[in-house]
Write a structure and sequence with these properties.
Layout: H1 5-14, H2 17-44, H3 51-79, H4 81-87, H5 91-96, H6 101-111, H7 114-133, H8 138-164, H9 174-198, E1 206-209, E2 212-215, H10 216-240, H11 249-271, H12 276-287, H13 290-295, H14 301-307, H15 314-323, H16 326-348, H17 351-378, H18 385-406, H19 417-423, H20 430-468
Antiparallel strand pairs: 1-2
């Protein structure tokens, strides 16, 4: 692995003697300072009545330090790879390297963090010694080790993916997002580690995965590992197909299927008992990623023109456009979700609720999907149309809830997909859902007209090219 030229390049820059000893001294000094302060407190005070309490406190502090290294510093290094390469005018050289996408990905993930990995390895040994001296169970240490490794892989892969999604000089927002997440997640993480230090009950806290009971830390680690694998595949696709969307057709459907499987695995045991709240929760959680997947799978107008190059008649051109359109992918994603959730609703006795909910969300999804398609086929001629479409989407999603508050009429919130989620438990009859359904259908008419007009123009353009070229 270390024969990778990308790793060698980063190794040369990170392990320069004049900077290596400085950062190494900072880390060793921090380590010794933690140990000195805690041993001084143990010697002259009564905060740590026993050596075991002292070691548990050191374990807690080394855990925090390890998290900062693995979950914050390393992902931030990966989040600005492409902007930094472009600024250094070395990105074109990087793209021309005769390396596979896998080697490029590994080269960046490892190479950008060689020094951090070295520090993390040393800190891990100190962390492990402190845990053993604190008489913490081996099972708990193994669980925390698995969590540290898998979440590190997930965060670093996701950060690198956010960097390669846009080949621009502007710094990726991935680093800022990580900082914001760190601010809000720091408290819960510290609380979790503190609970671990005070007692070992967290290692025996079980969650249901289908009919199996698995420690919660292992479940989180499993999901983080799966997320890291998908992010890794996304990075490879980005390096191999620079001008293609992040998700291919099969990739989008595969990701949706994987997500539904993982969500159902957590809900399976709870769904065995006919609880309406559990079913509604499963329904809404399972549909969450559909719009994100569609946005990351958008095919452009130029792609539509390209895929019709071997088609001659106008009718076949329109068919070819639709079969390769963003609309069809959105419909297939919704159909896959509906089959899975519909099957669950029949098995749990909530098929009537499923039909009423889906009647509305199908049309709501078509509205959002039409806005996405209009962006894809009109943005080449007007790059600012995205702002108008986001404004329309914002009105569609938020305005009904605002009007509901102004006029003190809760029913108005039903005309927003977001408000519908919160209002369905009150307005759940078919007669109360149909007006919102009709409004969506009316909203679709001008959107579909714009899409059909553009499809017709594409077909005419392709027919003209076929005749004259």
């Amino acid at each position: 692995m270390f024969d990778n030229p990308i790793i060698q390049r980063y190794r040369f820059s990170q392990f320069r003697p004049q900077q290596l000893w400085i950062f190494g001294t900072v880390y060793v000094g921090t380590l010794l300072l933690i140990v000195f302060i805690n041993t001084s407190i143990y010697t002259i005070g009564d905060v740590y009545p026993t050596m075991e309490k002292l070691c548990r406190s050191l374990f807690f502090q080394f855990s925090i330090l390890q998290i900062f290294i693995l979950w914050l510093f390393m992902p931030m290094n990966c989040s600005n790879v492409v902007p930094q390469e472009i600024t250094d005018k070395s990105f074109d050289f990087f793209r021309m390297l005769p390396l596979s996408s896998t080697k490029k990905t590994i080269g960046i993930l490892v190479g950008r963090n060689l020094f951090n990995l070295l520090i993390a390895a040393v800190n891990l040994c100190v962390w492990l010694v402190a845990g053993l001296l604190a008489k913490m169970s081996i099972n708990l240490l193994l669980q925390w080790f698995a969590l540290l490794i898998t979440v590190t892989l997930a965060l670093n892969s996701a950060s690198l993916l956010s960097s390669v999604l846009s080949y621009s000089k502007t710094k990726s927002s991935g680093g800022l997002i990580l900082v914001l997440i760190a601010i809000f997640a720091f408290g819960p993480i510290v609380g979790l580690i503190s609970e671990t230090v005070n007692n070992d009950k967290i290692s025996s806290f079980m969650v249901n995965f289908f009919n199996f009971q698995i420690p919660i830390i292992y479940v989180i680690s499993l999901y983080a590992l799966i997320g890291a694998a998908w992010a890794f595949v996304g990075i490879q696709r980005r390096f191999s197909c620079e001008f293609e969307p992040l998700f291919s057709r099969r990739g989008a459907l595969g990701f949706m299927a994987c997500y539904l499987f993982l969500v159902y695995a957590l809900y399976h045991h709870a769904l065995l008992s006919p609880d309406a709240d559990v079913f509604y929760s499963f329904y809404f959680v399972s549909i969450l990623p559909i719009i994100g997947i569609s946005l990351l799978s958008v095919r452009s107008l130029s792609k539509y023109i390209e895929i019709t190059r071997l088609t001659s008649s106008a009718g076949k051109i329109n068919t070819e456009i639709f079969l390769n359109s963003n609309l069809l992918l959105g419909i297939l994603l919704f159909l896959l979700w509906a089959i899975v959730v519909g099957t669950v609703s029949v098995a749990t006795g909530f098929s009537a609720d499923f039909c009423k909910l889906t009647l509305y969300f199908l049309t709501a999804w078509f509205v959002l999907l039409s806005l996405i398609e209009i962006y894809a086929i009109y943005s080449p001629t007007n790059g600012k149309i995205a702002y108008l479409l986001m404004f329309i989407a914002g009105i569609y999603l938020i305005l009904p809830m605002v009007l509901s508050g102004i006029f003190e009429n809760d029913y108005l919130a039903m005309f927003s997909p977001i408000g519908f989620i919160y209002s369905y438990d009150v307005y759940d009859t078919l007669g109360e859902i149909v007006p919102a359904f009709i409004m969506n259908a009316v909203f679709l008419i001008p959107l579909c007209a714009l899409i059909c007009k553009r499809y017709s123009n594409i077909a005419k353009l392709r027919s003209y090219i076929n005749v004259n070229v």
